[in-house]
Amino acid sequence: MAETENLPKAKKRISLIVNGKGVQAEIDCRMTLAEFLREEMGLTGTKVGCNRAECGSCTVILDEKPVYSCCILAVEATGRQVLTIEGLAGKDGTLHPLQRAFVEEDALQCGYCTPGMIMSVYALLGRNARPTQEEVKHAIDGNLCRCGSFPNIVRAALRVSEKISERQGDEE
Amino acid sequence: MKSKLLVQGTPPPPLEREFTVVGRPFDRRGAVQKVTGEAKYSGDMKFPNMLYGMILRCPHPRARIVRINTRRAREIQGVRAVLSCENTKGWRTQWYKVPQLGFAECLTHEGQEVAAVAAEEISIAQRALELIEVEYEVLPPMFGVEETMQSPPPPLVGDEEYPGREIYDRKPYVIKKGDIHQGFAEADVIVEDSYTTQASFHGTIQTRACVAAWDGQILTVWDAIQGVWNSKEALADSLGLDPEKVRVVVKNLGGGFGSKAFSQRISFYAAKLSMVTGRPVRIERTRAEEFLAHPRRWDCKIHLKIGAKRDGRLTAIYERAIVNAGAAALETNYYSMQIIWHTANLHACPHVYLEQIGVLTNLQINGPTRSPLNMPGIFALESHMDKVAEAIGMDPLEFRLKNCEDYAMIGSDAGEVPDASVIECKEDIPYSSKNLEQCMKWVTQAIGWEKRSIHASVSRAEKRRGVGMACYLTFQGVGLIPYTAYADVEIRHEGTITLFIGVVDIGAGQSTIFPMIAAEELGVSLEDLTVVFGDTQDTRYGPSCQVSRVTSELGPAVLQAAAEARNRLFQLAAPILGATAEELQSKNGQIYVKSNPWRSVPLKTVTERIDPEEPIRGSGARARNPESPTFSIFGAQAVELEVDVETGEVDILRIAAAHDFGRAINPKLCVSQVQGGIEFGIGFALSEEGLYDPRTGKLLNRNLHQYHMPTSLDMPRIDTFLAESDDSYFAYSAKGAGENTNAPTPAAIRNALYNAVGIWFNELPITPDKLISAIREKEKGG
Questions:
Q1: Count of Cβ atoms closer than 10 Å to residue B647 Cβ
Q2: Is B553 in contact with B485 (CB distance < 8 Å)?
Q3: Nearest residue on chain B to A50, judged by CA atoms?
Q4: pTM above 0.95?
Q5: Which residues of A are less than 8 Å from B207 in CB distance?
Q6: Given CB atoms, is B413 within the 8 Å cutoff of chain A?
Q7: Tens digit of pLDDT for each residue in B313-329?
Q8: What is the pLDDT of residues A55-100, one digit of tens each?
Q9: Is the Cβ pair A153, B712 closer than 8 Å?
Q10: I want to staple B475 with a disulfide (CB 3.0 to 4.6 A). Which of B412, B450, B481, B720 is the partner?
Q11: Domains B48-139+208-284 and B173-199+296-478+628-781 share a fold
């Protein structure tokens, strides 16, 4: 007798919004959100460095909050909005100011932690347009970078935050 | 000035014009793809029909397989292949040029491969692993380096093997000079102490992953490794293929730090599974596998005895360094003189006797890890230098400056592969260039060296500050197999210029700086140049990106290739400008007559004269290092920190770093390398340590939660200075600015801790518990 009978087979339909687009799929209910994004949707910008919520490279935005997508089941994201690194640039390919700042400040080396790092900073700037250096450091303390880009990442974040605050100042 | 560029054939003459590309802080190439998520790493590759591979690993450091049964795993629906010692008898892999059985019956380290499975889905492969029945006879492991040294080597069991055992196990490798007894007799002060460093891990954020695809003719491997060419050869050797039939591709690499210096073992299994099933196979390691099974820096015990005169001159250095070499040691993965080479050359001393002894144990093989044995070696030496300085009552900076000379004891080649187990140094060898003195002065000035005396006088405060420094050097390149380097430049009729280099961009910016060198020599802007890299197809042999070597190994070849292509272009331009090719120069996309720059023609106009069928090609090849001078990079770091004597926490306030990498091709990228090194150094000094169960020898902390790498909160302010120097042996004087920037950090931190709390810490990492107990001990005693 083949052993496949022992394998759980529960499938479930999910429906969510990824990078502004409605997505529906039938998936194995054990699948993590990271796995869903990478393997089912081909959005491989989201990286999986540890698969147990320690390195932060899988960080995405779920309903405006940064989450470790390796430790959230895809089924939990149903009915919710997910933003990944692929959804940050403009439709015409214009880089988001944060992406531009990461490039110019050399806030990356190997680039593997970069998508998760950018999403964590993006979430911070969403809730606090003008963070202090300490606040930036705390916002990314769950994202490991082994190449040592932290000083440049903090600089990139502060540079964008200053631009955001300037713009808000203009509007006021 | 005659060029001494390290190339085969006649070196091109110096450029003799100002730079327009070199020295500018361009954004790194590939950065846009990395910030948008477009950059594809090996584990992102997916092919139709692809299978997923997984590996069953031995749970014991030393064991023999009594019985293995894979039947149940093979019978699961969706499993396409199961490999083990049952069906691969005699299969040998060549990893780090170390011949090892693909599936041994006698296993010599925890995590060694027992079986490999390929299945339609990961979950099926996982289930299959669970169904493989293995009965082990667990053997007592050789584990602690000192205990192992003291007990006789155990008789081998079955097919148990420790490659390199005859050459390195418990055998001293020696560098000596003068008469060590005379040296100590001449000393006014002799200081002796022992230092211990720990097992440490690379912690790349990308775990190893590969996709191997055998199409019946060609094996293509999308890999996560630092050298495409050494991996191509290793795969060919391990699978019995003609190297012509193997292609290795690495477009992006998620961190290396030495861990991916050579082909990786999972690629051998993925390739074998692909050859058995005829389908592409992806294997991606879990984080726990990453911790368990790859070569790394093991623990070292280093004993130092140094003699000095009251005036600060060193008279004698004796060192005995014992290195845990793991379960296999050959010259590609174990550097038999690396600790002592650095001790021999950092400070000038007339009488020296240094020995390094490797001990084979039941740990995964030793291997490149960001300054593999030089970081432990420099830690011990630079810690000890402070202790000697105190014993003679001299400022540590002044003491180092007193012993800073422009010559080395022993040449660069011996740092990599010594040609004898005992090397007696007779004549001093000059360095090609050295700016260490400047580095030491800059960092101490920047950190506020004068604060040392104030900090040392504070002994009651809850938080105490300290300042400390350390310096280092690292040899540069060899120009020998397996680090030979070739480069090619092609200029086409359409005006396109392409640089072909068989190296990987490990994240240090190789795909940026080599085009910068070529663009400078060609006299074009950086954007005019495309680079083909990270692929054995279309490129010639290039070295693996390790030991901060690629700039010094490959740079000269790139410059030579660009110069040759440019000279051919000048021959086409000469009739247009009514001059000879030798009278021409190029800059900013214009070719002009040197004596009259107004007579010029755009380079693009000249390329139209290139035969569309026959592009211009220039080629470059690195020559091997001469016996003299010695090539090295240098640097110094100074640290200011604060210790909380209640909690044992160390807060590093600031680090000043000055490095002599020759000339910085791209200063922005050089500074990033320094910051990366410092992060590694901080972790090694204060928090990172592989913990092993003393009874079973099993690794306990196999995840990023319990293995403490520095986070954003641990990184201090860093001020980086580039102390540039001229060195015409290299491309525009550019030497390596990579991994070795971590080497001085741990000793600088440790010396600053002494300044803060008056305790010498000789055992790494210096964790809060060790700090607190040492402080309490001292308070009790005082």
A1: 12
A2: yes
A3: B287
A4: yes
A5: 49-50
A6: no
A7: 999 999 999 999 999 88
A8: 999 999 999 999 999 999 999 999 999 999 999 999 999 999 999 9
A9: yes
A10: B412
A11: no
